[in-house]
Amino acid sequence: MLLLIAGLESNPGPKNKTNKLSFAVWNLESIMARNKSKIPVIESLNEVFQYSPFGLCETYLTNDVADSEISISGFSPSPFRADCKDTTGRKKGGFVFFTRKIFL
Question: N or C: which end of the chain has fewer CB within 10 A?
Fold first, then answer.
């Protein structure tokens, strides 16, 4: 029914699947929590979906954490980071943006 009204296309995207861009953003509430157990989950998701960029919100990272501690297989070892500011004694916020090695 939707295809008949307003000129909607069923899939207006490109036909060539080899050039697709797949990305994700996850509000994970601390990448270091639970012995960094969320990193293998991200690596598993990346194996299936082959994300080009991958963003993480609410990382709770500060400049005390090195890039090597949050390294994710398949992505550049130097992610773009916006670490949180610890102004109230409790870490909040932060963002990390990973890109695939092939893009760099």
Answer: N
